[in-house]
Amino acid sequence: MINLYEFRKYAHQMVDWMADYCAEVEKYPVKSTVGPREIYDQLPADAPSDGESIDEIMEDFQKIILPGITHWQSPNFFAFFPANSSYPSILAEMLTAALGLQCMIWETSPAAAELEEKALNWAKRMIGLPEHFEGVIQDSASSATLCAILTAREKFSDFRINETGFEGFQNLRVYCSTETHSSIEKAVKIAGFGRRNLVKIEVDEKLRLRPDRLKEAIANDISNGKKPVCVIATIGTTGTAAIDPLDEISKICSQYGIWLHVDAAYAGTALVLPEYRWMIEGIDRVDSFVFNPHKWMFTNFDCSAYFVKDKGALIRTFEILPEYLKTRSQGQVNNYRDWGIPLGRRFRALKLWFVIRNFGVEGIREKIRYHIQLAKDFARSISDHDHFELTAPLSLNVVCFRFRPEGLDDAEIDLLNEKLLHRLNLTGKLYLTHTKVRGMYTIRFVTGQTNVTEKHVYQAWELIQEKAFEIMTR
In what order do the strands lie in the sheet with 388-390? Predict the structure, then answer.
């Protein structure tokens, strides 16, 4: 085991390695090309009986581990939604690791609890949420959505399900669109509703939840003895970044007394731009809201900002107070162990605080506007090309498109685009993913990585055209 002197030496070496990596990350193949079990089979079957040097460990890191890394911080990463990092966030993560805090209650580190409260108040105002919302950092939007559904369940049952189980509370219903993230379905299963009680509502031509169909589904369920408990509206769906019409949805939920949760995991960051605040018209009627600074606000994973209108209902859903956690500060401070599922909590607020302070609100806005403009320019290139087409309306910085040469039917076009995506990713020069839009195989192109520039988008478009026409001429 290394001593303090060696720790200092290796820490300096690793900081140099990290800086070099950040400077040169776009030189790596974006997507790892290793095969299944290739990394596993290079590692010893058993742990070493005697300690090994950091030099040996780092050698294996570079030789074995690094080839199996997909480089999410590459500016040529256009897949999924980004899991962004930035220099201030990395620095804060280093401090977090050194401090090694367990931030379950205020007493275990007062600064962690109070910084979390302040940083989320900053974030709340930055994205235009009402002042009465109160926030907590969760590990992911999936966890935050589970918290919302559980709290909606308990508030509906007057907290009796937590006490006595589901007796007398069958057929509880949750509603979302057909485009909603899969974490909603997982949360419904975990919360005990049962998958069949998740009602997926039809979407419109812009792939947004249809309020008229939602209202019909709720009314039909009530007439058939079902019990509507929660609606999930999405600001930025995973496939196409569609924006559900929140104002209309929120009015329906208010009419029927249904908990409304907003999943803005990715697109919520765009609310820092005043010109995109239209996305949350009706927010005063919303019960809970989540967005992920670890997606588009340049903060290392994991950091999910979850806001609630009624923190009392949230706390009552999760609070447990064993003797060993009783403190004199109880009731005077926020003990965030009661605001979610785990007892143990990381010091996530530090990196968010570093990012907001170092970028500044205007710096974040400038970066988000630039990413959106890159997507508009790329979408224009697609639209202007005779053999490519957009498959969904452009929303924020997510471009959905496909290669569509003449003379092929839909099935052939799907196979062609699947082959194109595979060929592109094999080059190692970029990374793209796909979705289905009304049954069409669609390539997604997301211009959200922290350091992406016009150069990277141009190079990607040139490569996409090159590989598309290679396929057609062979």
Answer: 388-390, 398-403, 440-446, 433-437
